Amino acid sequence: MDNRGAKLTGKAGAPGRADREAAPGEPEPSPGPARPRSGDEVTGPSGPRGVPGDRSPGLAELHPRPADTGPRAYSEPAEAVARRIEQIVLGGQRRYNRVQVSEITGVSPDRASRLWLAMGFAETGDDELVFTDSDIEALQVWDALVTSGTIAFEDEVPHARAMGQTLSRLAEWQTREIMARADELAPATDGAELAASAVDMADALLPVVERLQSYVWRRHLAAAANRILLASPGEPSATTLVVGFADIVGYTSLARHYDTAELAALLESFEENTSETVVSQHGRVVKMLGDEVLFVADSPRDAAEIALRLTGPGRAGQGLPPLRVGMATGQVLSRFGDVYGPVVNLAARLTSLARPETVLVDRELAAALRQDQSYELRARRPTAVRGYQHLRSWSLRPRDGRTG
Hints:
This protein is an alpha+beta fold.
C-alpha cells in the first residue's frame, strides 16, 4: 500500500454529479459523465469547488431579501428542507453505500470506515445510501496521497482525526450562525420555515465562505512556514516555547448566575480580548477551553507582554472579566496544532495557583526575564500541587509603574 515511488495520479478524477433533486414540475437532471477509471490523473478546478471563476458576489447575492408581503412560500417539512441544504453543501445526492464506495475506489471497507469515524461521522450499515460523488472523489484523492507516500499510511487516521475535530467545531458554529441570521432577516413561525429560509442563505454564502476559509488557511500556512523554516534546525515537532494559560476568575460562580445571553456575551468578550492581545504581541492561540485560553510565544519578552496586558488594570472598566495567568518555558511537543509535555502541565498548575489579575512563571522563564529591566520578579514560597511536591514560582510584574 505504501508505494513510495508511485506518482500522485488517479484514482481521483472529477466525477460528474447531479447537483440537486428536480423540483416538482422540473425535468429530471441529466446524468453526469461516467465514473472515472482507475489510472486517471488527479485533476480538479483551479479554485474552490463551486466558485465560478473569479467573479465576486454582490451584496444582493449575499443577502437575499425576504418577500415583502404575504406568508412564506414554503410548505415542505423541515426534514425535506434540511435535505435540500445537505445537497447544496455536498454537491449532490446520497447514492452509494459503503460496499459500493469500496468497489469504486479500491479502498477496503475497514480502512474507509476507520477514516470515516476518525473524521467524526457515525458508522453506517452496508446497505445504507449515505455517500455522494464528493465522498468518492475525496477518498480517491486521499488514497492517492497515501499511495504516493505524501502521507504515511500509519499517519492517515491521526491526520483525518485532526481535520475532523477542527472542522467539526467550525461547521457547528457556522450552521448555528446561518440559522440565527436567517431568522433575523425573515422571522419564522416554525422550524420548517426557518430551515427553508436558511436554504437561500446557505446557497448564497457557501461559495463565498469557502473562498474566505481558503484565504485564511493559506495565510496561516504562509505564517507557519516562515515561523518553522526560520527557527533553529532540529526536530520540527519538538520546539522550545513559552506556554501560557489565562482563565477567567470566578467563572463557575458567574456561570451559575448568568442567563444564556449574558454567558455568551461574557465568553465573546473574553475570546475577542485574549485573541487580539495574544496575536498583537506575536503569540499564537492554541485553543480556547471554555473559560480558559492556551497560548504560546516564541520569546520570553513577548510572553511577558501578553500576560501583563491580560492581567492589567482597567479591564473591569472595559467590561472585561478579571483573568489570572500561568506561564512556563521549555521544550514542547507540537502535534496537529496542539502542544504537549511537562511544560504545558506546569503552566496549567501555575495558573491554578495565581491570584486574580496576577501572573506566575516557572524558574526557567523567571531566569530568562530577570535581566530585562522592564519586569520585576518576586519569588513565592514552594507549594504542593498535583504532580509537584515543591513547586517554585515567581510573580511577574511590570517595573516602575508600567501597566502592561
